[in-house]
Amino acid sequence: MEDWWAVWLGAVIFILTPWISTIPKIKTWEANPLESIPADLVFPLIVLLIGMVVLMLPALAFMKISAAQFIAAFPVIFALSVISYAVASQSVLKAYGLGYAFWALILGLLISNAIGLPGWLKPAVRTELYIKIGLVLLGGEILFSKMLSLGIQGLLVAWVVTPVVILFMYFFGTRLVKGLSKTLVIVIAAATSVCGVSAAIATAGACRAKKEELTLAVGMTLIFTVLMMVFMPLFIKWMDMDYLVGAAWMGGTIDSTGAVVAAGTMLGKEAMDVAAVVKMIQNVLIGVVAFVVAVLWVTRIDRDSNAPKPTPMEIWYRFPKFIVGFVAASVVFSFILTPLLGEKSVDAMLNISKGLRGYFFCLAFISIGLESNFKELAKQMVGGRPIYVYIIGQSFNLVLTVVMAYIAFGGILFPR
Asked: Where are the beta strands (DSSP E) in 93-249?
């Protein structure tokens, strides 16, 4: 039920963006954390809190979740997300790229494993609803006009490498590494090859992975994303690599759009643009991967050999419906709103939806942490084999992507 409500609520947010002046942004600070939330930011945060509650109440009512219990618990989850943003805004941590997603997951895990998840807080721990609303909002940011700015070069890096890496990781993780579930492997493969957390969430929904498997994949992705964001630009400079090739390489391998932009900035404005657009093109594959995984799991992986052949409706039932909203948002903003309103107006709308997307993602990461237990996560580690699969898969991804980046952006097939 969260899937369709994510679509409807995402649509409501897009419709309301012209009437929302701004989204409160936590300030950067150095020594005093109170500087992150100055007095003039308190009221906008309260308004945002109330607005999010009002937005989600109809969905909660249909999902038979007590409105009173949700209203009592949600301010705590919201406050934890604000704290995560505040920690991430510390100047040194911000420079190292330790974003809100990392701190939200850590904060949720610490609370869950230190004192446990209080029963009264559970009604507001709505991981799937938060992340799926955020993913629908992400769809609006994927504009085809920007993707076409790189033409076939961007498509070669983003769309040729990705399916090869997914297939490699899946067969490696299920055939050569023993003891790992197929759902865990495909979620790790999607997170590694497409765009990290967003792809992991969509794929986990399509194959019905366990929450512990999703948490493990998300945790590994966030940690290695930070490492790659810091060290890849340094390596590119040290190797004196063509900055456009390096930018395309980072855009195709770093598993977070924000981290890609931060890493690209270290190579210059043009490199940042190339890296960001390559990642944007790759993000389109979220829906494709989710659909293919849903089909395979219904027709092959989960199918009882003695049962009748699955019908198209069974595939539709398994398919994550919020992907419909993700794709629709991209199409509407690319082919209807941009020609109708102009890029400036669309950018203003997306600045608002992007700010809200960040808060919904942060709420989701807090919720993932609160629902996770180190003992259960340890069971999924299987002697460190998931990390082994990730490292081998990401290494293959790095090599294949840099080769394709040289072919596409190094003046081999196309003029530089």
From this structure: none
